Amino acid sequence: MKKYWILITAIVLFIAGLIFNEFYSSGMIAGDFALNYFSAGQFSIGVFSAGTFSIGIFSIGIFSIGVFSIG
Length: 71
Description:
By secondary structure, the chain is an alpha/beta fold. Helix content is 27%, strand content 38%.
């Protein structure tokens, strides 16, 4: 159980994100400076973020900071 806490956290947050998206779809934003739950843009901050400079739990970008980040 010790080794799988990150995977369990990722799955719980992903399911929470899907539920959040279902009821609050305005939580998604895209643009140069994006700050929301799901965000995409040059500078993005959110749980799921993608962009050149991104900060989030799940982040993808050239300069990305997060638990699960690809850069």
